[in-house]
Design brief:
- It is globular and about 100 Å long.
- The protein has a six-stranded mixed β-sheet, with helices on both faces. It has a two-stranded antiparallel ribbon with strand order 4-5. A two-stranded antiparallel sheet has the order 7-10.
- It is of the alpha+beta class.
- Helices cover 41% and strands 20% of the residues.
């Protein structure tokens, strides 16, 4: 009889039995394939996430200034942070948040402070105070990082698009004011900060960078309406306007040197405005008449609420009855008037005339700084 391997193929197949693995082993192979596929998918997702997180475009806040120009309204978000010189914790929190709104056709300006304790839902990160958005944006890898999340959240609050942003920390703030030779600010009512054991008398003050920063930050004040964040926000607007008055007679090139000084003073100084945009905006608005600048406080449109979340207790701010309708209307109609939008217990920002003349320095401070930062 022939060997089975030499039989006809069709008979050979019937004689040689096929191997069938045990049911348990087949299931284990399927599980291995699924596990390897899942790991591969995770690696792909992680690679995409890493690429987007570290790519320059992912870290930038989109610039929409050109769109604002077409709409005849440009909203710039000013962000002040503590940075490395901030005492204690909170170096990445937004210490000051202000929207500067510009109307090119009429050369009107509005300074609108947003309370840093505004309590609302921030993206997909839950409900927090507004100043936490800057820190959360970095930790969560949000598009545009800290400024990106803060820009999107403020836009939600005011019901208006934010077209660009500028951020400075305490150190850069002081350096710029010192480079200008200080600023003149009228203190409407005296106050004393019991935490820092320092204060200001009523009347005109010529302030260097350090004093101007203190004036803009002090809030531990007893028995005075200056002891709250709304009062502090209006003082911050005073400082911004005082800086504007000092740069009013500078050329665009000199103004850009100040921006360069702020950038070299601190790595935390940042903006998504281009140089041509800064030159154009400066040329249009640097010498605008003070009567065309409107100051806005949100005190009359908001209410104080108590937050009792563990680790974040204390007073916070929200729109009255948590209704944003009136708040959005204020921002939409801000150029329909010129009088400051403030309550009776806030400083009224009335015209107090010009500051007393000060002796001219032997060499203008701007010339010294220009030489230091000139390319």
């Amino acid at each position: 009889m022939a060997h089975p391997s030499r039989l006809r193929p069709e008979l050979n197949d019937t004689i040689r039995p096929s191997y069938t693995p045990p049911p348990g082993k087949k299931r284990s192979r399927v599980a291995e394939y699924v596990m390897y596929g899942f790991i591969a998918l995770l690696l792909v997702i992680a690679g995409i996430a890493a690429y987007t997180h570290y790519s320059p475009s992912w870290q930038k806040v989109p610039n929409h200034v050109a769109e604002g120009m077409k709409q005849d309204r440009i909203n710039i978000l000013l962000i002040g942070i503590g940075g490395p010189t901030h005492p204690g914790e909170g170096k990445d929190l937004a210490d000051a948040i202000m929207v500067v709104s510009l109307k090119p056709s009429t050369r009107q300006v509005a300074l609108m402070s947003i309370p840093r304790d505004f309590y609302l839902k921030i993206g997909t990160f839950g409900t927090h105070r507004l100043n936490a958005a800057h820190s959360l944006g970095y930790k969560a890898g949000y598009p545009g990082e800290g400024p990106g999340l803060l820009v999107d959240t403020v836009s939600q609050i005011i019901g208006q698009p934010i077209h660009g942003y500028m951020r400075v920390d305490f150190l850069a703030f002081e350096k710029v004011i010192d480079a200008l030779g200080g600023v003149d600010i009228y203190v409407y009512r005296p106050f004393y900060d019991f935490l820092f054991k320092d204060g200001f008398t009523a009347g005109w003050h010529h302030m260097n960078g350090q004093r101007a920063l203190r004036y803009a930050r002090y809030r531990y004040v007893r028995a005075s309406a200056e002891g709250n964040n709304f009062a502090r926000e209006l003082r911050q607007q005073q400082v911004i306007d005082a800086v504007r008055q000092k740069v009013a007679n500078l050329s665009p090139q000199q103004a850009l040197r100040l921006v360069a000084l702020a950038s070299t003073s601190s790595k935390f100084t940042a903006t998504n405005l281009t140089t041509p945009q800064m030159v154009e905006l400066y040329s249009t608005f640097h010498n605008v008449d003070r009567k065309h600048i409107r100051n806005v406080s949100l005190k009359k449109f908001t209410e104080i609420v108590m937050v009792r979340v563990p680790g974040d207790t204390g007073e916070a701010v929200r729109p009255i009855n948590n209704d944003y309708t009136r708040l959005h209307q204020v921002f939409a109609d801000v150029f329909n008037g010129s009088a400051p939008i403030v309550m009776r217990d806030e400083i009224q920002l009335t015209d107090v005339g010009a500051p007393p003349a000060a002796p001219a320095p032997k060499q203008p401070v701007m010339q010294q700084q220009a030489a230091a930062v000139a390319p």
